[in-house]
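S.,

As promised, the adenosine-5'-diphosphate run. Input:
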Amino acid sequence: MTVSDAEHNVAHVLVEALPYIRRFAGKVIVVKYGGNALAGTTEHDALDVFASDIVLMRLVGLRPVVVHGGGPQISSLMDRLGKTPEFRHGLRVTDAETVDIARMVLIGQVNPQLVAAINLHGDYAVGVSGEDAGLIRAVPRDPALGFVGDVARINPAILEGLLADEFIPVVATIGTDETGQPYNINADVVAGAIAEALGAEKLVYLTDIEGLRRQVDDPATLIRQTTADELDALITDGTIAGGMIPKVVSCIQAVRNGVGRAHILDGRVAHVLLLEVFTDAGIGTMVAPDHIARSLEDSLGSPSPIVRSLEDSLGSHQGERP
Ligand code: ADP
Ligand code: MG
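Predicted complex:
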């Protein structure tokens, strides 16, 4: 019997994935799926590819949690209702009617769309909102913005229960204050806070650009690997702007508070999640906690596969299963 190159490649891919599957078994990975990515899903159905990646991760033993936004979809319903969206410093001014609309869109439209897409590949997805079982306690961010919240506290009990029962939680980012008033909260911020609360191995942002750039209009300036300290500096000097700010701030905070790695990846690339998690290819931007990255720079030249072999040597310390 002869084996074709294609078959040989399949075997190679599976063998390459094996150490990653072993290493990440049982680990939580929080994935934020951007509203822009959702709005742009038509031709090769990026949503379906994303959904199958999430189910595959679950089937090989990871515990994915999906957090989604829905900014474009909220704007579009406001438009249909004759309300003009207003933004201040990138944040939506959210009066009582607008928070109602945000709630309808996120919990009534975007969340079930993601749940349905995932469940086409395996009945694991369960939609929850930050209102469920007190998952997201919100505080107002700035009275001038109305019902735009920040995360005061995450109560991960509902997520822990779902994960223990092997479900895939899909989180809509509406939170409530102590009076039960709903707030719309930036999904990037919520993803970071949930990753921290769950002690996730990875926090992944799927967005509409291949990663962080040193110059936003120059793809050749992609930052493949960085640290929380370096990102602090890039925020201060204005390199990071607009919708990238809450992602980067959340990456910094997450890796400083116990999350293993944070990644900013291009959600438009088919199977980008699988490429990141299960292959040796360094893809997008990876954010490491400061000390590990520094010790790397001291000893090695630092392309991504080397980071990974170093991580492997550190694996036992991260509580890896045999
Ligand atoms: P999402 O729907 O994924 O949250 P956003 O539009 O909010 O998407 O954020 C991603 C955008 O951030 C990119 O499309 C890019 O225009 C912008 N951005 C700002 N600064 C940077 C940077 N330094 N590197 C990459 N993208 C940046
Ligand atoms: Mg955004």
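The pocket of magnesium ion (ligand 2) is lined by residues 34, 69, 243 (CB under 6 Å). The first helix runs from residue 5 to 24.

- D.
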